[in-house]
Amino acid sequence: MATKLDPEDVTLHSNRSVCWINLGEGDKALEAAEMCRIIRPNWTKACYRQGAAQIFLKNYEKACDAFQDGLKLDPTNVEIENALWEAFNSLKISRAKAVS
């Protein structure tokens, strides 16, 4: 309802993305995160939210891309760097399983 009152409020979309992940709704989480990126493309938190939603959906390559975008914006962001490593390791594991 709040996003209808102020559809440009990026914080609402960001928080909504987290809530959808916590409810197990990965597609909705990604949709909210992508809205963050549209509204504020140079916001590191939007990149983080998008990456987190992609990890939840097991789209590890896309998660890596989102986290790398975030690190380009803020190279000192440890949270995004750690998330990138998590996504990268998950990608390696999923590829190894696909080969075997």
Summarize the structure.
With 100 residues, the protein is mostly helical.
Spell out the CATH superfamily: Tetratricopeptide repeat domain
Distance between the termini: 47 Å
| Tally of individual domains | 1
H/I helix tally = 6
Task: Assign a percent range to the helix content.
Answer: over 70%
| Morphology | globular
Q: Low-confidence segments, ≥5 residues, pLDDT <50?
A: none
Which structural class do the helices and strands define?
mainly alpha
The average pLDDT is 93
Helix and strand run: HHHHHH
CATH class: Mainly Alpha
CATH-defined architecture: Alpha Horseshoe
Radius of gyration, in Å, reads 14 Å
Quick one: how many beta strands?
A: 0
Strand count, sense and barrel status of the largest sheet are: none
CATH topology: Serine Threonine Protein Phosphatase 5, Tetratricopeptide repeat
Give the amount of beta strand, in percent: under 5%
InterPro entries: Cul2-RING_E3_ligase_SR, TPR-like_helical_dom_sf, TPR_2, TPR_rpt
Keywords: Repeat, TPR repeat
Pfam families: TPR_2
TPR repeats: 44-77
Describe this structure in words.
Keywords: Repeat, TPR repeat. The chain has one domain (2-99): Tetratricopeptide repeat domain (Serine Threonine Protein Phosphatase 5, Tetratricopeptide repeat, Alpha Horseshoe), CATH 1.25.40. It has helices spanning 2-5, 10-22, 26-39, 44-56, 60-73, 78-99. Helix 4 (44-56) packs parallel to helix 6. The longest helix has 22 residues, at 78-99. By secondary structure, it is mainly α.
